[in-house]
Amino acid sequence: MKTFKIALIPGDGIGPEVVAEGVKVLRTIEQLDPSISFSFTEFPWGCEYYLKHGKMMADDGIEQLKEFDAIYLGAVGYPGVPDHISLWDLLLRIRKEFDQYVNIRPITLLNPELTPLKGKTAKEIDFLVIRENSEGEYAGAGDWLFKGKPEEVVLQTGVFSRKGTERIIRYAYEEARNSKRTLTSISKANALNYSMVFWDEVFNEVGKEYPDVKTYSYLVDAASLYFVTEPERFEVVVTSNLFGDILTDIGAAITGGMGLATGANVNPERKFPSMFEPVHGSAPDISGKGIANPIAAIWSVSQVMDFFGEEQWGEAILSTIKEILTEQPSLTSDLGGNSSTSQVGDRFVDLLSAKVSEVGVSQE
């Protein structure tokens, strides 16, 4: 039996509500597949923890997390705690300490009725964004000079190392090659005359090793337009930390909203655990009402299973998401349904169980 150790950080707002449904799916997989077992350890870190202890996580939190195979995060952020503290002292700390330098965001239309784009189909909105996840504009470098004075100056420095830039671009080339898809680099070299010129040069240098991969390059403003008007241009996309953050939210908007947006923070060398999360945020305005959409959190479970090498389960979860999206009454109100968060999870595991009973899941 394969046993996977998962650290649960439900976090803030709707985080605990949606993570509970993801765990429900994992528990169902255990029941359906006797070759797989999960162990869960929950950590109470987040904004409530901060308000009680003055810190977002335990002092030895990173050491505690090292022993796990994966981290499943719900959401971070709550009124009363500044956003830069909630982000930097938990989410970004984990990403950086565990060198989770690859952020994987699927932009996939699972139900054609969910896109606001007129005339676009699932075939035309199906691509993968690979975002640099460890440096760039989120490196935390800069200065604040003459604070409070008329000559006050703030410097925010984007950090683009040869190591960091090359490894994310190489990862994207490998993904494009292995999946036989095109690769598009998104930058802004006409305005950012150091960082993005360097990015473009590295993209071209690494590309010489992948002559079989067809490539494109767009400025980020043009790419933002094409995400909305011609998403079919994209198959695999690689971009910087800040641009990836913004563009993937556009991607979420064209595929049904943030309630369907998931992301993986991956350490490809597996020296450290990787982290998986819905990226919709903590939504404190609907916290505790039982109406949060858990599908992004469940999609995160699909990414977890792919990461564990259990791709058959990853695909089974994804196909079940497609199925439940056709049952509007089984969805939460943001998707036009009337089900609660837990009712969506219950219906999902019923569909998943039925699917496995009908076609089975191959065991290697």
Automatic annotation (TrEMBL):
<dbReference type="InterPro" id="IPR050501">
    <property type="entry name" value="ICDH/IPMDH"/>
</dbReference>
<dbReference type="InterPro" id="IPR011829">
    <property type="entry name" value="TTC_DH"/>
</dbReference>
<dbReference type="Pfam" id="PF00180">
    <property type="entry name" value="Iso_dh"/>
</dbReference>
<protein>
    <recommendedName>
        <fullName>D-malate dehydrogenase (decarboxylating)</fullName>
        <ecNumber>1.1.1.83</ecNumber>
    </recommendedName>
</protein>
<feature type="domain" description="Isopropylmalate dehydrogenase-like">
    <location>
        <begin position="5"/>
        <end position="348"/>
    </location>
</feature>
<keyword id="KW-0520">NAD</keyword>
<keyword id="KW-0479">Metal-binding</keyword>
<keyword id="KW-0560">Oxidoreductase</keyword>
<dbReference type="InterPro" id="IPR024084">
    <property type="entry name" value="IsoPropMal-DH-like_dom"/>
</dbReference>
<dbReference type="GO" id="GO:0009027">
    <property type="term" value="F:tartrate dehydrogenase activity"/>
</dbReference>
<dbReference type="InterPro" id="IPR019818">
    <property type="entry name" value="IsoCit/isopropylmalate_DH_CS"/>
</dbReference>
<keyword id="KW-0464">Manganese</keyword>
<comment type="similarity">
    <text>Belongs to the isocitrate and isopropylmalate dehydrogenases family.</text>
</comment>
